[in-house]
Write a structure and sequence with these properties.
7-stranded mixed β-sheet, 280 residues, Rossmann fold, alpha/beta, Carboxypeptidase Inhibitor, Chain A, 5-stranded mixed β-sheet
């Protein structure tokens, strides 16, 4: 299996069927491309990451110092972090997403804006010229990377952590690799009131997940079908990679999420291992 994910929109079986049914009205794009920016903002901007942010807060130091958030997206976690009084550097690669993030940040009070720096960079290879007490990456984001890119991520994080600083990762618990393909579908309502359908096909044996999002209204014109493929590396694999690449994994804690429980999520807390003099 190749470590490189497909670039551009994925031709999922579900997407192909939809496009065939709508004819010339059909438009295919990747969920993170400019063509789907309106859909992304409609579905993601108001996502409430408060519960997940609290999970991170329970593992960060009481005074975490400057926090680096990787793959910040539209700020689902960033703004709850800012509400906690943290100083946050939000790192994101997509220009379209960053533009929307900056517009959202501009609506915040001046003191909140002053505590948030926005950086356009690749989470698998970045150099910011400063160190942070805490580096965080949210659920799913690390699954955008293949194994080679994850090694770049770990190396970059090590270079940006203060001595004793923490690397916090929220990870999804996936099923066993020998289980068969699984499919699920749900309807989502965006902040605009428009309804969308999300179809997800997970293939544990291939460690991939194909996502297809399209209008719930069959007569939509254009009928935009956005797809995306991501990795589903297990929490166990990520922990093994962290140890391999110079971290000590301190804890792996199931989500509490304010008492509601998230048995499908775990928060991993790691610190960079000290390199002894003369070690390779």
């Amino acid at each position: 299996m190749s470590n490189q994910l497909a670039r551009g929109p994925v031709r999922t079986t579900h997407a192909d069927g939809l496009l065939a049914s709508v004819g010339a009205r059909g438009v295919l794009c990747d969920f993170y491309d400019e063509g789907a920016a309106e859909i992304y903002q409609d579905l993601v901007q108001d996502g409430d990451g408060t519960a997940e942010a609290r999970e991170f807060a329970t593992h960060a130091s009481p005074a975490p110092g400057p926090v680096l958030e990787l793959a910040a997206g539209m700020g689902r976690l960033t703004f709850p972090f800012l509400d906690l009084g943290w100083e946050v550097t939000a790192l994101e690669l997509s220009t379209a997403v960053l533009d929307a993030f900056r517009k959202r940040l501009a609506e915040q009070p001046p003191d909140v804006q002053d505590r948030c720096a926005v950086v356009q960079a690749d989470m698998s290879a970045f150099a910011l010229g400063k160190r942070f007490g805490t580096v965080v990456i949210s659920s799913g984001s690390i699954n955008e990377l293949d194994e080679t890119a994850r090694r770049g991520l770990y190396a970059s994080v090590r270079e940006h952590l203060e001595p004793g600083g923490k690397f916090l990762l929220s990870l999804e618990l996936s099923g066993p690799a020998d289980s068969g393909p699984q499919e699920r579908q749900q309807e989502l309502t965006g902040r605009s009131g428009r309804r969308h359908v999300m179809h997800v096909k997970t293939v544990p044996a291939e460690e991939i997940q194909d996502i297809t999002i399209y209008p719930a209204e069959e007569t939509a014109d254009p009928f935009v079908v956005s797809t995306h493929r991501r990795r589903i590396a297990t929490a166990e694999r990520i922990a093994e990679e962290l140890v391999r690449d110079g971290f000590d994994v301190l804890t792996r804690t199931p989500f509490a999420s304010g008492g509601e429980g998230r048995p499908d999520m775990v928060l991993v807390e790691a610190v960079a291992r000290e390199i002894t003099e003369g070690a390779e």
